[in-house]
Amino acid sequence: MLEKTFDPGPIEARWYAHWERTGAFRPARPEARPFTIVLPPPNVTGTLHIGHALNQTLQDILVRWKRMQGHDARWVVGTDHAGIATQMVVERTLAGQGLSREGLGREAFLARVWAWKAESGGAITRQMRRLGASCDWANERFTMDEAYARAVTRVFVQLHAEGLLYRDKRLVNWDPQFQSAISDLEVENREVNGHFWHLRYPLADGSGHLVVATTRPETMLGDTAVAVHPEDDRFRHLVGRRVAHPLTGRQLPVIADDWADPELGTGAVKITPAHDFNDWAVYERHREIGWINILNPDGTLNDSVPEPYRGLDRFEARRRVVADLEALGLLERVEEKRVQVPHGDRSGAVIEPFLTDQWFVDASRLAKAAREAVATGRTRFVPASWEKTYFQWLDSIQPWCVSRQLWWGHRIPAWYTPDGTVIVAESEAEAQAKAGPGVPLRQDEDVLDTWFSSALWPFATLGWPEATPDLARHYPGDVLVTAFDIIFFWVARMMMQGLHFTGDVPFRTVYCHGLVRDAAGAKMSKSKGNAIDPLVLVDRYGADAVRFTLAALESQGRDVKLDEKRVEGYRNFATKLWNAVRFAQAQGIGAGSEAPPAAAHPVNRWILGEAAAMVRAVTASLEAFRFDQAADALYHFTWSRFCDWYLELAKPLLADGSAAAAETRATAGFVLDQLLKALHPFMPFLTEELWHAQGQRHTDLILAPWPAFAVAPSDAADEITWLIELVSAIRSARTELNVPPAARLPLHAPPAIEARLARHLPALERLARVSALAFAPPAGPGIAQLVVAGETYALPLGEVIDLAAERARLARAAEAAEREAEGLAGRLANPGFLARAKPEAVEKARADHAARLAEAERLRAALARLG
RNA sequence: GGGCGCGUAGCUCAGUGGUAGAGCACUGUGUUCACACCGCAGGGGCCGCAGGUUCGAACCCUGCCGCGCCCA
Q1: 3-state DSSP call for residue A222?
Q2: How many angstroms separate the CA atoms of A788 and A793, rounded?
């Protein structure tokens, strides 16, 4: 017998350990059709946040469902080495011990990182287990695994050999805090209050000055020109002349270029090629102006600037430049202005465009196949609207800077000879062979962008570049489940690399879900303090309730606004089911048969039909990735059908020696089994516990076959629908007429339905407090009347009835019926409707009209009888 | 500036051509031996606004208003 109260904690711990120990997450099914999902690998430094919980819940639902359908279901799991984040974590720890990365040296530092990973790197995967994630842990991967690293090197070398990866000096987004290049995707533009400084640049010949406006005055120390628009008559005469830089004294040419916007600022713009992406483009059209880099990697000014500014931090330099210009009388005015300032999404530091030598992938060439694969439907997005986002990004893709000035990561397999020759090779030995014996080689100090290696995840986890059986069987994967915000970071890059290196797409379907927000719709963040820790929710309400909540709220990729009240509600749902099973146990209802039991009683035939419909709805919803609809079907079947009506209607049947008792026990057992199976992907722990509580089983529920059964159509559904309506109508009338709850009343009914009523008298007694049936019109005053399914029923209330209340009640019902009938009559009187509407619609309107009319007549007649 | 999306009951959201739904919240109530994390009954909506298409529009089209996100 189950405990009186449902306590999720111990149940969860017990079943997860059991499943993992028995290999249930990946049973050997060599004959079965594979079903593969690759987990977007979480950051190894990470802890489970609510976004992971949503992402992983959805994947686990799919995997458990497919596993139950008999597939060789495999959820590829692992973590990402997260170059910057991990290096930061370890450096912070070192700083606490008075140590530094530089002090330790590269090798010793990397040893520390590995030690850290061994000790603390598993936090997130332990947390995933608490959520119930049924991953293939036996084949867990890490992006820095030796085999994985070989795949990364192979990709680098091959792309290089194909001319798709090259070294170049270009402007990159430079993070002065990390002192590394970062990807343009890792830059977040924030709009902040800034200034527009209008600066006077004297003409070199002393004949006046030109005013330029800038939001970053410190960069003027790297100016190499001033540009005006070629059509701008105000400045036409100055083109080709020179201005004297007020602080460096350099002579800067005035050039004509379309980049200068006559509408913006003064119409003249200073050009600083080494510190602005647009200015670099101007330089490429006017090579003669050259460029000057004024920054050190740490964001201080270097020796290219006049002595007083050297070594100043860029922000301090800004203040100094402005102050000095003001002192010189060259600061014409200062305007308040909202400006877009790039920030590193991890460091939060202001990003500088910085001219360095880096490695780039020619993404535009790889993008073609990636675009094509989605355009032709080889990979589809769900919801499809995300395709547009994907296309737009691929269509405007820029060279991808893949080198990072970090130590933790895949070291770039490139070596330099003393004369500067670059050799790209899969190993140092190979490089040496290429360079010739005895030539000293120095390996590139940098590592690769973490996303460069993550992009290989769908195939490198399966053994690529070896032609492994795993790869043959599980690539391409079936589904990728991901938040839409990493379509660019990850999905597009996996598509590019997957297609290029395997010739096939990495997955057939990309399901994009939304972000989890707080109850008010705000993005969750630690700094705002509105972040919800999924494990706190698990502790409070159980993993099943958290999972069910996330699934129920997940609708077509919309953002999920999570209110703890919802979790509480689904905890209540779990308890409801728990109690239903307790009741079943008390009634001798146990494990059901494999096939639907033969049932004669309408109540049993009805619930079998309802259960079959529920299973169909859940299956269809999952096929369409409608997690909310599937959850809704399960919730309503369980609560509103099975608990509220079936169990209540079954109680009299189960009572002492009724002929229908055995049949009802068999039916209830079978239906409960189907429910537990269909609910299992959503609430795995509770359902597994209840599955075993119900009797001896051949298999754990996690490996039980997904339900699929049909029941012959019957008129039982009509009969029970009528019964439910009748009971509801009686209850409603009793409440509205203030009948004392304990009072039992006889029910007067038309003789024509005596048999039907008699069949359900025990239910009516129990659920509607009916004392007896009568088939003659009731005598005396104080009759309450109801119309259900075209028949009039009466409840004699004697003197207690409130005549006025009853009259009002009947009148209201009659008016409602008449209103509906009139509406339908109006439609039927419309020749256009009869001529053009679908025949079924016309048919239904006619039937409904007749029914409403009859109901109204009966209600009016009842009203007349009241007097 | 370009793109995407959203506006339906107090709140959070389903519903995408045929008489408006759910959960929570709210009101009243509590007979019954699964469950008060419960039962029963109930109130509550010009489906953002204005046009159009259609026999018929919450749903399709256009415009407007408001809100959000992405990109520049």
Answers
A1: helix
A2: 8
CA A237 – CA A230 distance, rounded (Å): 10
- Helix or strand (DSSP H, E) at A126: helix A123-131
**H or E segment to which residue A862 belongs:** helix A839-866
Task: Please state, as a whole number, how many other Cβ atoms lie within 10 Å of the Cβ of residue A615.
Answer: 22
3 state DSSP class of A501 = helix
Cβ atoms within 10 Å of A230's Cβ, excluding its own? 13
Strand partners, A180: A175
Measure the CA–CA gap between A797 and A727, rounded to whole angstroms.
17
Say if residue A176's pLDDT is above 80.
yes
Contact at 8 Å (CB) between A363 and A398? yes
First CA to last CA distance, chain A = 57
| CA to C1' distance (Å), from A568 to B26 | 18
- Å between CA of A726 and C1' of B41: 14
Q: Which of A265, A235, A270, A237 is nearest to A252 (CA)?
A: A270
Whether the upstream peptide bond of residue A465 has omega within 30° of 0, thus cis, is yes
Lateral strand order in the sheet of A209-214: A209-214, A187-202, A331-344
Residues shown for chain A: 867
Q: What is the pLDDT of residues A5-57, one digit of tens each?
A: 889 999 999 999 999 999 999 888 888 999 999 999 988 888 888 889 999 99
A813 pLDDT more than 80: yes
Span CA (A824) to C1' (B59), Å: 21
The pLDDT tens digits for A376-385 are 889 999 888 8
**Residue A6 contacts strand B, CB under 7 A:** yes
Distance CA A450, CA A45 (A): 13
Q: Is any atom of nucleic acid chain B found less than 7 Å from the CB of residue A765?
A: no
pLDDT tens-place string over residues A325-334: 788 888 888 8
Structure tokens at A11: 């149940």
CB proximity A561–strand B (7 Å threshold)? yes
**Residue indicated by tokens 């974590």:** A89
Closest CA to A474 of A166, A58, A76: A76
Ranges of each domain in chain A: 180-352, 557-714, 738-866
The topology under which CATH files domain A180-352 is Isoleucyl-tRNA Synthetase; domain 2 (3.90.740)
Residue A21 token pair: 């120990």
DSSP character at residue A489? I
Supply the pLDDT for residue A674: 96
Q: In the prediction, which pLDDT does A613 show?
A: 92
Please provide the average confidence, as pLDDT, over all residues in chain A: 88
Among A582, A590, A514, CA closest to A553: A514
* Nucleic strand B under 7 Å from the C-beta of A263: no
User: pLDDT band for position A529 (50/70/90)?
Assistant: low
CATH topology for A557-714 is: Isoleucyl-tRNA Synthetase; Domain 1 (1.10.730)
In this structure, which amino acid lies at residue A374?
V
pLDDT > 70 fraction of chain A, expressed in percent and rounded: 98
Residue closest to B18 C1′ by Cα: A841
What does the block give as tokens for A764? 């009516």
Please, which pLDDT band fits residue A317 given cuts at 50, 70 and 90?
confident
Label residues A80-115 b or e (16+ Cβ within 10 Å = b): bbbbbbbbbbbbeebeeeeeebeeeeeeebbebbee
Which tokens sit at A661? Answer: 């008792």
Residues A47, A49, A51: CA angle, nearest 5 degrees: 135
Is the CB of residue A173 less than 8 Å from the CB of residue A351? yes
Q: Six-digit token pair at A357?
A: 């030598």
d(CA A421, CA A416): 6
Q: How confident is the model at residue A268 (pLDDT cuts 50, 70, 90)?
A: confident
Report pLDDT for A647.
95
| A786 Cβ neighbours under 8 A, 6+ residues apart | A729, A730, A733, A792, A793, A794, A795
